[in-house]
Design brief:
single chain, about 450 residues, alpha/beta, Rossmann fold, 4 domains, five-stranded parallel beta sheet, 12 strands, about 15% strand, binds arginine, Arg-tRNA-ligase, ATP-binding, Arginyl-tRNA synthetase, ATP binding
Length: about 450
Amino acid sequence: MGLWSKIKGKGTQFRGPPAVGEAIKNNLPTSEMIESCSVAGPGFVNVVLSKNWMAKSIQKMLIEGIDTWAPMPPVKRAVVDFSSPNIAKEMHVGHLRSTIIGDTLARMLEFSKVEVLRRNHVGDWGTQFGMLIEFLFEKFPNFEDANETAIGDLQAFYKASKQRFDADPAFKEKAQQAVVRLQGGEDKYRRAWAQICEISRNEFHKVYQRLGVHLEEKGESFYNPYIPEVIEALTKQGLVEESQGARVIFIEGVNIPLIVVKSDGGFNYASTDLAALWYRLNEEKADWIIYVTDVGQQQHFDMVFKAAKRAGWLPHGDGSYPKTSHVGFGLVLGEDGKRFRTRNTEVVRLVDLLDEAKSRSKAALIERGKGEEWTEEEIESTAEAVGYGAVKYADLKNNRLTNYTFNFDQMLNDKVPKQLLFICCMLMLESVQSSGDLVKTLRN
Ligand SMILES: NC(=[NH2+])NCCC[C@H](N)C(=O)O
């Protein structure tokens, strides 16, 4: 039926959805997987899987291991660029979605024996560091002693330094010079920068640890040294043009160009992404590069990929490798239909969100009398597994591309969805197979 809306009015021989259904049924290749196929009502195609085939497949899976089921994509190495929060700024629910979706994709590829480079493309470069560094020097003359406890909340530190930057021209001047000194590689400035990054990194790590997600950081700063050469090569190929003082790449079908060198001579997000793509293709030899960000960045990636095709870095056909994909996702909304925020309009801190998920699932366990049956440790670990698992599941069960409303009550609802039960069964089968102790597994 979904197909019908796509071909309707396009001059095909089909008169309506049932006719399309019949055609699918008649053209379905014979396969031991399929027992029968029929078209019902307004055009639903029902395919009945063969019980025999299912029994054989499950048996094979139990004997040879579940990974014999893994599809084998024609890819040896993939880069999954996900999570990627910005240093000293908040890691928000958007980054949480990216972390959950990206980790899931990485796991699926790993399951299919693809070597996955799990990349955290953190925003650790840019003019805001001048301001942060100068503020650090001002607040902590012995800046090397400044740590998380001294600085406290890095977001608040960011805000305070921004206020200082906007209010005091002398500070602004110093901050601008600090950027130049940092980019020039001056030791004291590099050390201050590294320190700020380290504090942020520790914060991010707490979230990853709770979610059981592993990432390897190669932030924007890593690609910085590669940018001039990459832009130079693209210029030699005739791709880069002057436009209003900036250097840009025009992309067919898009009315704004991709700015690769700003009018002040500085590089930007796009120049970094071009250099990163070059690096991933040429140095890391990735066959598939996947970027997981909100849909708002779709055009940016579309332009970067098209520029790479124009430069001959990527083949033109869709089915050919190496290839790039942007995996976008919708916004997370609060109950009020606006961006998910706390009451005081701050973005929700991810650690707080995970704390809440855990404490709610703990309360539910106690309510069911588990407090008397289980040790404190068992309660804690189950509350974490269920709470964080619910956050992940609530995200993945939604349509990836549309916005969704964040709701703790629904998320931790005790009506366990069928999909989750299925996963539990699979895990039980796996553990029976590996431990051979059915009684123990069932008791657990
Ligand atoms: N290669 C990339 N541009 N990856 C995504 C980076 C995401 C960016 N730091 C953000 O917070 O929006």
